[in-house]
Amino acid sequence: MQRTLIVMTPVQTIGFCLAITAFELLTYMASDMIMPAMLTVTGEFNADARHVPNAFNLYLLGGVCLQWLIGPLSDRYGRRRLLLLGCALFGLACSAAVMTQRIEAFNAMRLIQGMGLGFVVAVSYPALQEVFCEADAVRLMALLGNVALLSPLLGPLLGSLLLEWLSWRQMFLGLGLASAVVWLGLLAWMPETIGVTRRDGQQQAPASFSLMQVGRGYLTLLRNRRFVGCSVALGLMSLPLIAWIGLAPVLLMQRLELSALAYGVWQIPVFSAVIVGNLLLDRLLASHTLVRVIGLALWPFCLGLLMLIGAALSSAALVMAVGGLSLYALGLGMSNAALYRLALFSSPDGKGLVSAMIGMLSIAVMGLGGSLIATVGGSDNLKSFCLLAALGGLLCLPLLYRILRHNPAAPPRPTYINKDIR
Question: Helix 103-119 crosses helix 51-65 at what angle (to 10 degrees)?
Answer without folding.
Answer: 30
